[in-house]
Amino acid sequence: MNIQKFLKKKIKKIYKKYGISNDLDPIIRKNIKNNEIDYQVNGIIRFKKITVFSPYNLAIHISNHMRKLNIYKKISVLPPGFINITLKSTWLNKCINNMYYSKNFNISKKTSKNIVIDYSSPNIAKEMHVGHLRSTILGDVTARVMEFLGHNVIRQNHIGDWGTQFGILITQLQLKSYKSYNNIESIYQKAYLKYQNNPVFKKQAQKNVVKLQKKNQNCLKIWNILVKSTIQKNNEVYKKLNVSLTNNDVRGESFYNGMLPDIISDLKKKKIAIYHEGSIIVPLKKFKNRIGQNMGVVIKKSNGAFLYTTTDIACLKYRCNILKAHKIIYYVDKRQTQHLLQIWEIARKAKYVNINTILEHHSFGMILYKNKKPFKTRHGKVIRLLDLLNTGIHRAEKIIKKKNPQMHDSEIKSVAYDIGIGAIKYFDLSKNRKSDYVFDWNQMLSLDGNTAPYIQYAYTRIQSVIKKNQSYNNLYLYPIKIFTPYERTLVLTILQFEETISQLEKHGTPHLMCNYLYDLSGKFSKFYENCSILFVQEIHIKLSRIKLSMLTARIIKKGLYLLGINTVSKM
Ligand code: ARG
Questions:
Q1: How far is the CA of 409 from the centre of ligand 1 (A)?
Q2: Which of ligand 1's atoms lies nearest the C-alpha of 333?
Q3: Residue ID of nearest Cα to ligand 1 atom 8
Q4: Residues near ligand 1 with C-beta < 6 Å?
Q5: Which atom of ligand 1 is found nearest the CA of 339?
Q6: What is each CA distance from 428 to 138, 366, 423, 438, in whole angstroms?
Q7: What is the Å distance from ligand 1's center to 399 Cα?
Q8: Which segment of this protein is annotated as the motif 'HIGH' region (predicted)?
Q9: C-alpha distances in angstroms, 540 versus 463, 494, 537?
């Protein structure tokens, strides 16, 4: 049940009576500050010019109509034109019981859309590092949420498996043979130095890129080995991170290589691309360079090489024509905003993208170190993602050992995994993705505050409450009912789960789910401190409270699942 949406629909009908046009949706705000008021209708002031009424009078009229629906305990109008709503507890009772008995929390399924989510997408030949964390986990949350809502999610790991870096690597591997490719990163670093300082090497590397593009057998063979071994390593990271990407989702830059010549000739034919000093460019009026001139985006260099942009245009065409995407979401850091706007503009001009197809860039900020500089090792090196995850698990292990000296080693290991990984992911997800944040081990592993361990701990506590009261098997005889203000607040918050998911779906902002779970856990604590379960005599109250606890636990578990975080049974 999405109360916000329900109210919106009802109030919209009333709006119509006053000639307010269909595309002016009622604005319904959840009220967080005042316990007496559940929701507020905002934005009536906007209708000043549309109706003969003053906003205040209009609000009065609207509220009079609203009263005909038997779900409000109190409706009051506040100048200049707000309507405050308090819902009837009997209605909340009805909603919460429906939710309790629904496997899916009574959340309405959407008409299934094809949603392509481009995320993680690291460049191959380098190991995944801290910089890949955000795209990988933010994108994964959206994939889980969309799937939960019934969409057909197409995950795309657009790995950088093509281009100059392979020319460099292939050249190095032709010069020197290596026993294993386990350490591609360091081979690449050495080769890159050569590339920068040795003109002969550089020339050869550039030649190899062209050769690779022309499908030279030897180059292809080396390339294949490099790509396979890096993908394998990345899979280790995904597994550890509990991220739902698999080999089937990999569709990297190389995949589109064969389509590029056709794209170029098509764009030329459509007069979108032109020759310019030996290269082929797409002039774009919307984009200006540093000195204010119209910008031309290069799609083929004078030496015949294609670019990242060219690949992304082909990729967009593929996603629309072949994958039939209704919506494409890119989880790429904010430095690539302009790049994406450009390829979208070009692809739309060329009609590779349907007008109705939605293209979204869910950009995100950087992870910083305490000194507000990019998060690196003490020696200024990038931090391998796998090392970071292992450190998190290790730190969690120490904390758990100290708290539970009697816990078995194997259990400690498994709990430490869920806590460590959960802490890292949650800390990141709980920040608004648009902002940078400072990485802080102590904060993320703390049991206080808006952290994964806090929520995981709340979950184990609720589980033990349920366990203590397990002996009742006639739960179905007694509905959940609101008896005290604590229960009312908890019920209302539980009912706001769907609103939270739909906000998250709309904006790709997992921090809203984190805030919600934190709030829910707090409300449960308040309820539990103030409403006895074990010692209450009346069976109908007792069982209602047990059911409320069970529903809270289910919501927390599902909420964490959507964030890609596991619950634990003990901690
Ligand atoms: N490989 C790119 C990078 O590491 C990210 C790719 C994002 N996806 C895309 N379709 N361009 O910067």
A1: 41
A2: 12
A3: 158
A4: 118, 121-123, 158, 160, 312, 315, 330, 332
A5: 11
A6: 9, 10, 9, 10
A7: 37
A8: 122-132
A9: 20, 20, 9
Nearest atom in ligand 1 to the alpha carbon of residue 336 is 12
Q: Check whether 476 has a pLDDT greater than 90.
A: no
CA distances from 175 to 164, 191, 387, 510 (A): 17, 10, 31, 48
Express each pLDDT in 212-228 by its tens digit: 888 899 999 999 999 99
Cβ pair 469, 533 in contact under 8 A: yes
DSSP assignment of 214-282, as one string? TT-HHHHHHHHHHHHHHHHHHHHHHHHHT----GGGB--GGGGGGGHHHHHHHHHHTTS-EEETTEEEE
Distance 332 CA to ligand 1 centre (A): 6
| Position 482 confidence tier, pLDDT thresholds 50, 70, 90 | very high
Average pLDDT (194-207) is 95
Predicted pLDDT at 75: 96
Do 561 and 452 form a contact (C-beta atoms < 8 A)? no
pTM, rounded to two decimals:
0.94
> What's at 512, amino acid-wise?
L
Residue of the CA atom closest to atom 6 of ligand 1:
121
CA distance 490 to 553: 12
For residue 180, the model assigns a pLDDT of 77
3-class DSSP state of 505? helix
- Of 74 and 34, which is predicted with more confidence? 74
- Domain covering 3-87: architecture: 2-Layer Sandwich (3.30)
Do residues 527 and 486 touch, judged by C-beta distance below 8 A? yes
CA–centroid distance, 159 to ligand 1, in Å, is 7
Residue type, 199: P
Ligand 1 center from residue 155 Cα (angstroms): 14
HSE toward the beta carbon, residue 540, CA cutoff 13 A: 6
**Atom of ligand 1 lying closest to residue 330 CA:** 8
Tokens 């005889």 belong to 477
Average pLDDT over residues 314-327: 98
Domain locations in the chain? 3-87
Radius of gyration of the chain (CA): 28
- Number of other residues whose CB lies within 10 A of the CB of residue 449: 11
Among residues 411, 423, 414, the alpha carbon closest in space to that of 453 is found at 423
The C-alpha atoms of residue 131 and residue 265 are separated, in whole angstroms, by: 36
**Token pair listed for 27:** 């604005």
Token pair listed for 17: 């009576």
Alpha helices in 357-436 (DSSP H): 385-403, 409-429
Instruction: Give per-residue pLDDT as tens, 69-120.
Output: 999 999 999 999 999 999 999 999 999 999 999 999 999 888 899 999 999 9
Q: How far apart are CA 542 and CA 318, in angstroms?
A: 57
- Is residue 308 within 8 A of residue 338, CB to CB? The reply is no
Give the mean pLDDT of the chain.
94
At residue 31 the predicted structure's pLDDT band, cuts being 50, 70 and 90, is confident
pLDDT band at 409 (very low <50, low <70, confident <90, very high): very high
Statement: residue 137 has pLDDT above 80: yes
To test ligand 1's pocket by mutation, which of 334, 336, 346, 353 has the most ligand atoms within 8 angstroms of CB? 336
Q: What is the mean pLDDT of residues 459-482?
A: 90
